[in-house]
Amino acid sequence: MNHALRGVLAGLALILAVPSSAEPALRQRENVLGTSFEMAVAGVPDDEVDRALAAALAEVARLDAVLSVWKDDSELARYNASTGAQAPSPDLRTVLRACERWREKTGHAFSCRLGSLLARWRKADGGETLPDRAELRTLARAIDRAAVDLAGDGPVPRPEGLQWETDALAKGWILDRALERARAAVPAATGIRIDIGGDAVYWGEPAAGTAWRVAVADPRQPRDNGGHIATLTLRSRAIAASGHGSRGAQIGRRHYSHVLDPKDGWPVAYAPSAIVVADDAATADALATALTVMPIRAGLDLVEGLPGVAALVVTETGTPFVSSGWAALLDGDSRSDPAWPAGFAFAVDYEIPQQAAAEYRRPYLAIWIAARDGTPVRQLLVLGDSARWLRELPTWWRRYGRRDESAIHGIARETRRPGRYSVGWDGRDDRGRAAAAGDYVLVVEAAREHGGHELVELPFTLSARPIALERSGAAEVGRIQLRLGAAR
C-alpha cells in the first residue's frame, strides 16, 4: 500500500475546514511537503499568529529533511542508500519504530518497508509493461520476513532489498510535532488548526464554547465543491484521509491504484477510502492507510479495539461503513439520539431452520433495514463471504453487493449452523446518522447451495412506541421476531 503516493492533495482533499462565525486568523502556504499548508490560530493578535506559523513551518522543514524520500539529501534517503549499519537520529528511529508497531497491529497490512516495491511501479508508470508479478511477490515476502532491530540507540543494519518509505505515517507525525512547536511559541492561543494536504490536527476551540467543524467530502467526488457525506465537530483531535482514486500508475490503457498490498506488492483491487479520527495525527495517518488495505470488517474490528479512534470507510462505489464511535463526532442533527426512548433497544431474533437434505450447505443470509421504497438504510448482518454465492441473494446483491466486491467484506461473517440467533440495530444508517421516525422495512433474505431462496419482509413504524412483530418464512428462513422496547 502506498504510502508515498497517498494522494490526498490540495484541491482533492477529502477533509475540508468549515468556516465558523468567529473565524480564527488564517495563514496559508504552498509546496509544504509537496502540498498545501493551512494554519488557523485563535485567541492571539496577528504578530503571535505569525510567530506560531514560523515555529510550525520550521519544524515541518526540519523533519522533512529527516524523513523525506523525495529529497536525495534527507537522512532517510541517505540511510536507504547506505551499506552497512547506520545509527538513525532520534527522530528517524522514533518514526521507524512507530512504523513497525503499526505493522504488527495491522497484521502487516500497514508497512513502511515498501520503497523497493513502489520504485518498480513508479518506473513502470506511463509505459506499456507491468512489473513482473512473481518477482514482486518474491521481493515482498523477503522484505516482510527481514529482521529489523530498532531497540536501543546503536547502529541499525538495513536488510538487503529493504527501502524504508515512511510517508504513510510521517505526515501525521510531523503534524503532531508542528502543533507542539506552535503551542509552545504562542501559549496564549486558545485554538490551533494545522492542515497539510487534507490531514489535520485540531487543538482547543476556534471560538469560546465552540468546536472545530470539519466537512468530509465524498471520496468519489473529492473536490472542494463536491458533495459532503458528513460534517464533524472536533476538539483536540486529529483527522486523516487515505484513498486511491486520484493517484496511481497508468500502464497501457489501465490505471493501477497506488495502494499496494504489502503481502505481494500488487495494487489492491476495489480498495476503499478511509477517514480516521484519533487523538494524534500519527495514529490517524497510519490507520487511514491500513484501512485501505485491510478487509473492511477486519479494519473496523481493529478500530473498535483502539481508545479514542473512530473511522468511516467508503467502498469504491460509495457504500459507507462506520465504527461505533463515528456517530458521536457528527455535527448537529446527525448526532441526535435514535428515534426511541432512552433505555429502549431494537433487536431482531432470527432462525436458521434445520433442513432434511443429503447435501446440506449452511445458508447465506442477509438482514438489513430499508425505507418503504426499498432504499437501503442500514446493513445489520451478512453471513457468507463468497461473492459467487452472495449473488444468490438477489435483493441484497442489487442494493449492496453488486459491482462492489469490497462491500461484501464490510460486515460479512461466516455462515452459521441451524439455530436461533439475534442481531441489534442502534437506530442509525450506514453513515452513522440517526434514522428519523417513520416507516421502514426489516428485510431478511436467505439462499442455500442445493436449496432454495427466500425473502421475508417485516414493515414497521419507528417511533417512541414499543414494537413486537413476528413472521415466519416458508423454508430457508424460520421465525423472525422484531422487538423494540425496554432493554433486557
From TrEMBL:
Its EC number is 2.7.1.180. It catalyses: L-threonyl-[protein] + FAD = FMN-L-threonyl-[protein] + AMP + H(+). Its cofactor is Mg(2+). Keywords: FAD, Flavoprotein, Lipoprotein, Magnesium, Metal-binding, Signal, Transferase. Gene3D superfamilies: 2.60.40.4070, ApbE-like domains (3.10.520.10). It is an enzyme of class 2 (transferase). It comes from the Bacteria. GO terms for molecular function: metal ion binding; transferase activity. Residues 1-22 form the signal peptide. Belongs to the ApbE family. This is FAD:protein FMN transferase.
